Amino acid sequence: MQTSKNGNAFTNNPIVKAIGLQRIVVVLAVILEAIFFSVMSASFRQYATVVSILDYSYYISFMAIGVTFCLISGGNDLSVGTGMICYALAGGYLVQQMGMPVWVGMIVTILVGLCFGVVNGVMVAIMN
Fold first, then answer.
1. Rg, the chain, Cα only
2. What letter would DSSP give residue 52?
3. Alpha-carbon distances of 87 from 10, 73, 77, 96, rounded to whole Å
4. Among candidates 55, 28, 53, 57, which has minimal Cα distance to 43?
5. Span between the terminal Cα atoms of the chain, in Å
6. Kind plus residue range of the DSSP H or E element containing 120
7. What is the pLDDT of residue 105?
8. Torsion angle, alpha carbons of 21, 22, 27, 33, to 10
9. Could you tell me the CA-to-CA distances from 32 to 4, 50, 62, 119 in Å, in that order?
10. Could you read off the pLDDT of 6-31 as tens digits, one per residue?
11. How far is it, in rounded angstroms, from Cα 91 to Cα 26?
12. Angle, nearest 10°, between helix axes 80-96 and 102-127?
């Protein structure tokens, strides 16, 4: 099999080119990490552990979905994590400390996020 000057037989493979080397490396890293923790701790392989991992990481997935649109357009947004904490604190304060209904806290959280997002968007559009 011939290889080009810019790679080897693996990186020049059409399947690797179609999927992307970076994606393959990430999937392999996750698989190796799961194997490592499974070998090191028997409790890691339990159903409750998988549910716990998913339960504590779903909000990160939501943030990643939002940041994906920014990255696709060529931008970079570092305010997503701190913004989410700010929005959650605003809504949580209303529910816990002020005694408001949960639906009010949720609406305020969404509105605060919308306002911060608009301010961020305007600043990016005007200031580059």
1. 22
2. H
3. 46, 24, 16, 14
4. 53
5. 48
6. helix 102-127
7. 92
8. 120
9. 30, 16, 25, 42
10. 777 777 888 878 888 888 888 899 99
11. 35
12. 150
